[in-house]
Amino acid sequence: MTENIGKHLTDICDFYVPFYQSEAESDVYPYAVFRHTPQEHSTKEGVYKITSEVSISVYSQDFDEAQAKADAIRAALDADNDPRFLIHFLRQSKQRSEEVWSIELVYYVKQTA
Amino acid sequence: MAITRPEGYNISLTIGGKTLLGRTQEDLSIAAVTKTSITKDDNGVQQEQVVRHDVTFKVAALLSLDSETTHTKLDRDDVIALALATGSSAVVAVQYLCTGGDTYGGSAIITGYSESSSGEVDSDSTISLDLKITGDFAKVTQGNG
Predict the structure, then answer these.
(1) Is residue A8 within 8 Å of B22, Cβ to Cβ?
(2) Fewest CB atoms within 10 Å of the CB: A10, B58, B121, B137?
(3) If DSSP codes are grouped into helix, strand and coil, which group holds residue B111?
(4) Which of A39, A40, A42, A45 to mutate: most B Cβ within 10 Å?
């Protein structure tokens, strides 16, 4: 089984906001960055699932814009019905630093195929 | 001298020629059963003699169901059926294989079966099976180790 969690999230979220892994590839707001550490789980027959706690941070200089983008991402992930993935919302936090708002969404994601 | 240390997935227990679906752990235990004796010739020192061995297995697996009509492995329902068997049907042929090592075989009965499941999000449900060898547990093929 090849890990596809990052690609799957990107396919969903990039429609709403530029979506990057690990670090932004642009300095134009708004954008989102996700970080995750996939972990493989195996039986003696091989890997049967890959899990990860995924942090998605949405950045904008305008709070309402950041919140709207975060809400859109959350709605899209909640609506995902791909049977290969379980996406479970864990928590949300907000922060302002150097005139930039960031809204972090944390998910538990499981891939089974 | 070539030394190999097989990975765990190269070691398996077959029950009726099949392994458990989703198996995560297979444990073999061989316990010597001894008899203590003493005669006057032993000068007061008790003697221990091995009279037989208790050979048991414990197998753990993810609770898995196989909807295919031709099962190549034992799923949860197969295992429960085996665990509930009685009389001669309760005796199963087992083989313990280790890639590169000797293969051992014998007849066994299932002495215990359990399932574990919880309501946590994405928790794995598991099964556990205990077996005991009845009679001989002997080498059936020679490995290359």
Answers:
(1) no
(2) B121
(3) strand
(4) A45
Kindly state the tokens that stand for B5.
């240390």
- Report the SS3 class of residue B75: coil
Using a CB–CB cutoff of 8 Å, tell me whether A99 touches chain B.
no
DSSP-derived letter for residue B120 is: S
pLDDT tens column, B80-122: 999 999 999 999 999 999 999 999 999 999 999 999 999 887 8
A73-82 pLDDT, tens per residue? 999 999 999 9
- Joined together, the tokens standing for residue A67 give 């919140």
Tally Cβ neighbours within 10 Å of residue B143: 14
Does residue B133 surpass a pLDDT of 90? yes
- Give strand ranges (E) for chain B: 11-15, 23-37, 47-62, 91-98, 103-116, 126-141
Is the pLDDT assigned to residue B69 strictly greater than 70?
no
Q: How far is CA A46 from CA A49, B54, B55, in A?
A: 9, 32, 28
CB B20 within 8 A of CB B59: yes
First vs last C-alpha separation in chain B:
10
Q: Assess: ipTM above 0.85.
A: no
Q: Which residues of A touch B99 (CB under 8 A)?
A: none
10 Å CB burial of residue A64 (0-12, 13-18, 19+) is: exposed
| Tokens at B8, concatenated | 């765990």
**How far, in Å, CA of A96 to CA of A90, rounded?**
21
Paired residues of B41 in beta bridges: none
| Burial zone of A99 (CB within 10 Å; 0-12 exposed, 13-18 middle, 19+ buried) | exposed
